[in-house]
Design goal:
Blueprint: H1 2-5, E1 8-12, H2 16-28, E2 32-36, H3 39-49, E3 53-57, H4 66-75, E4 84-88, H5 92-100, E5 115-118, H6 123-137
Parallel strand pairs: 1-2, 1-3, 3-4, 4-5
Helix pairs in contact: 2-6
Length: 138
């Protein structure tokens, strides 16, 4: 359990209630949650904190929405190693389609996320999904 307690997980979501819910799930699971309410602050937090995993909302306002934020994470030399669990009210298939339609250069085309959960997530399923992604990383 001590190994798990040291794992930092960054939650990037514009909805305060969702950040609180995911933080609670993570704390209950023995992880250290970190929170950011936008893509821009999330990228800054990831650079500063070096999280072990990121939970990223797809639908966020402004230019730094979840899809563009995901692309920035996946094409950044420093941050692309961090596994990402996408969390959204939109279906996984819709997210993957949106990523493919963004006209990124083929060399910049990001890989699929390690996992995808639709909102609202069930606490136990989200905890299991995060645990599995972290196990696969290590």
């Amino acid at each position: 359990m001590s190994e798990k307690q040291r794992k930092k997980i960054l939650i990037i979501d514009d909805e305060a209630d969702m950040r609180m819910f995911v933080s609670t799930v993570l704390e209950t699971g023995g992880y250290q949650p970190l929170v950011a309410e936008s893509g821009e602050t999330g990228i800054a937090a990831a650079r500063r904190e070096s999280p072990d995993l990121i939970v990223l909302d797809v639908m966020m306002p402004n230019i730094e929405d979840g899809i563009r934020t995901y692309h920035l994470f996946r094409t950044d030399a420093e941050l692309k190693r961090i596994p990402i669990v996408m969390l959204s009210a939109i279906a996984r298939k819709t997210f993957l389609h949106a990523i493919s339609r963004l006209h990124f250069d083929e060399k910049d085309s990001p890989p699929d996320p390690e996992a995808y959960a639709e909102k609202p997530p069930e606490a136990g399923e989200l905890a299991l999904l995060i645990s599995q992604v972290l196990e696969n990383k290590g």
